[in-house]
Amino acid sequence: MATQYDNLNNGHQVYGSGGAYYNESSQGFITPAKHAKKRTSNWIKFGIPVLLLVIAGGVVGAILATRKKSSSSSSSSSSSSGSSGSGSNEKIGSGRFATATNSEFMMPIYPSTTDTAAFSSPTFTSNNALAWPSDSFAPSNPDVLTTRPDRPRLIAPAYKWAALPSLIAQDPYLSAWNDTIFLNATQYYNLPPVAYVMDGPSGILDNAREVKMRIKAFAYVYRMTNDTKWVDRTWAELQNAAGNGTTPFGPDDDKWNSAHFLDTAEFSAAFGIAYDWLYDIWQPEQKSKIISTLITYGLEPGIQAYTNATVYTGWWKSNGTLGNWNCVCNGGLTMASLAILEDDWSGLAKQLLALTVDNAKQNCAMAPSDDGTWAETANYWYFGTTAHAEMASSLMTATGSHYGLLDVNPNFANTGDFHMYVTGPTSLFNWGDHGPNKFSTTANSMIFYAEQFKQPQYALFQRDQRDAPEPWSMFWYDATIKGAFWNGKALDHFFDNGLDQWSSMRSSWTDNNALYVAMKAGKNLGHQTHNDLDVGDFVLDAMGTRWAGELGSADYRAPTYFSSDIQTADRWKWYRKMTEGQNTILIGQTNQDVNAAPTIKHDSSGTTQGSSTVMDVPKDSTAFFTTDMTSAYFNAPSVKRGVRLLNGRKQVLIQDEINSSQPVMWRMHTNATVSLSGTSATLTLDGQTMQVSILSPSDGATFSTSAAKRLDSDVVPPTPDQDNPGVTVLIVSLPAGTYNLQVLFNPQWKDSTTFVTPPSVDLDNWTLRSHDS
Ligand SMILES: *[C@@H]1O[C@H](CO)[C@@H](O)[C@H](O)[C@H]1NC(C)=O
Ligand SMILES: *[C@@H]1O[C@H](CO)[C@@H](O)[C@H](O)[C@H]1NC(C)=O
Ligand SMILES: *[C@@H]1O[C@H](CO)[C@@H](O)[C@H](O)[C@H]1NC(C)=O
Ligand SMILES: *[C@@H]1O[C@H](CO)[C@@H](O)[C@H](O)[C@H]1NC(C)=O
Ligand SMILES: *[C@@H]1O[C@H](CO)[C@@H](O)[C@H](O)[C@H]1NC(C)=O
Ligand SMILES: *[C@@H]1O[C@H](CO)[C@@H](O)[C@H](O)[C@H]1NC(C)=O
Ligand SMILES: *[C@@H]1O[C@H](CO)[C@@H](O)[C@H](O)[C@H]1NC(C)=O
Ligand SMILES: *[C@@H]1O[C@H](CO)[C@@H](O)[C@H](O)[C@H]1NC(C)=O
Ligand SMILES: *[C@@H]1O[C@H](CO)[C@@H](O)[C@H](O)[C@H]1NC(C)=O
């Protein structure tokens, strides 16, 4: 029996072996009984008077008539300007940038140019031709739930649809996104409805998210064309996911898998969107079928999760569930409830709204810490913020208020910065678990937050990313936006909150070949059991390649993978989660202490990028980050680590000061081919070369390598480790002792860089200028 719940955040323990739910003997787990007590909220106190008006006709046609093709070069610049991009500046200022095709994250390729006029500081302009019309729905008393009189009410109100064709004609981003959505919808059209595939403890989440992604695209294209074939195709998808299609879809009493409530929530959102966006075209019997299916498989399990003390499907509502589960589960139930509110004969929609909004305010909205870092991981940020943005946006368009979801936690406004700094030139600093497939999950919350938090750079950053084209972007994007996200953006940022404590340093925001190094300290607990034992972990990018990287998730299907994060938890037996699977120091071949609470110091020259995409880094531009991570180790009186940029951000030094009574290993995981020669290692990858050398200690320390797999002495995990094909561990192995270990990284830039050999300075004495020679 797995009952090690030392920590309320280890929330995924819905399953025991064989799929059984954990029972009340689970220590420390907040039992549903505690949550069954009634909460009063404004929703209940004031009741739900619903205002029904008849939509005024005529407006749509008038706006469509003004539509005309933009004569600028912008509309033709839409989807790509070739994969090389750099050097060509014909699209500057008016078009989109191409995205790379050869990197994991297909990062945008910014043209190299010093033509700075186009790249002004980020701003919302007062260009009325590109602005959304103002919304005539503005309830005066937000304490009274008043729903928008017309449809749709979720995220994309009618007045925005009416304005869209004219904006598409004028804005290259909206135009290209619209094209891609049409293309995607056409691809999905020809596929059979999403089949039910129960994927072990991960449930049917992929299925749910794929259905949601398709329905958004189908409904979008219907509304843009009036072609009812899209309505019929949507209906076929709904029928199938309700178990009324031609293939079976799950058990009759629980088709949306409430045991893994994310699945239920995402299906609920999908059905809510379908109901709402196509409200005007559904036949009455179709409407009642969608409602009955939503009630049976979405809202009823939702109310059970909230109110029934004997079910455990609602663990995610427990106080302290600061992560994506709380956002997704509350968000899906909220969107579905808003969609059917007045038509819901069960009354559950109204009851749920009285629960979900307050709960998300206390949990989901609190997930970013006071530096904006998402409490789970950089990848889970996508799931959490997508759901948070959908929920807040739906409430705003449907009722006129976000009910505090956007301002109860003032740090939420910084979470876009977290995402920008955690994104390197090749991919994320993707520590911890990477999460399931994204489907309808994107970083487009950035576009919503740009508008809500008046941070135009968030949207300017996101609009060139490959996941930007999807229906939400069409309604969240403010086309009056202008400028370049990088203009005025500091190259470095330090995230100081004790939970994560991490640093992001780079040589450019717009060069895919830029140097990027990011290192974390932080705590090993408090991340919803999605982290690794990885204090001191880092990634390093240079010359378009990731040289030190992450291994990602281990076995999500293993019954105890998420069940606990105490020291002896099974989770810490998989290589990818163990300390030895990270780019950090390993002491005594033993995992780090889960109770680690490191301290940090850092400084930066404060260098910002200007308007040019060609970043001319001053010679004295630098940054460093050090951590005393002794508390993360057993058997070591002192372990400190530091990272700094040298030589105008061309080189990187990693320094470890260790006093250990057990053997010490410096470890780094790389996809590169490694060749060794004593104190130096030559890494080659993607046609590039990185020279790594040990500067100190000067005797006895040499490099070795191994495959990325567990040491023979390790405890065996409950299920096999994932393979890490092509990954080599670069190692410096030292006996117990006291060391100042300095490792220098010299990327072999294709220019005339003269490398420096830095002086040896104790970490405690590092300053901005301590390494000038
Ligand atoms: C949206 O894209 C489709 C497919 O490319 C195109 O036919 C349609 O005209 C576009 N809509 C607008 C308003 O431009
Ligand atoms: C949507 O279409 C674009 C352009 O063809 C493609 O790159 C992308 O993979 C498609 N997205 C999905 C989810 O199919
Ligand atoms: C779709 O139908 C609506 C309602 O009749 C109309 O206002 C709109 O112009 C039509 N849109 C298109 C693209 O035909
Ligand atoms: C599916 O069939 C069931 C049983 O007839 C019915 O109650 C439900 O409304 C149907 N749902 C859909 C979406 O067709
Ligand atoms: C609570 O859940 C149990 C177990 O699923 C169920 O038997 C019971 O009917 C539920 N109680 C209520 C009031 O719905
Ligand atoms: C929720 O948790 C926080 C922090 O863990 C605590 O400060 C707060 O009192 C809790 N609230 C409730 C209602 O239990
Ligand atoms: C190796 O490359 C893959 C694919 O780009 C990436 O996901 C992974 O993080 C890399 N691994 C390392 C250790 O850099
Ligand atoms: C290493 O730590 C031990 C135990 O605290 C201490 O006695 C010793 O002096 C330390 N060694 C150095 C070189 O600081
Ligand atoms: C380093 O710092 C220590 C303590 O702050 C100081 O005593 C020492 O003189 C410094 N060493 C150098 C070389 O600056």
UniProtKB/TrEMBL annotation:
Keyword Transmembrane helix: yes
UniProt entry tagged with the keyword tRNA processing: no
Molecular-function GO terms, alphabetical: lyase activity
Record field: transmembrane: 43-65
Domain Heparinase II/III-like C-terminal residues, every copy: 510-711
Chain spans, region Disordered: 70-94
InterPro entries given in the database record: Chondroitin_lyas (IPR008929), Hepar_II_III_C (IPR012480)
Bias (Low complexity): 70-88
Alphabetic keyword roster: Lyase, Membrane, Transmembrane, Transmembrane helix
Protein name from the UniProt record: Chondroitin AC/alginate lyase
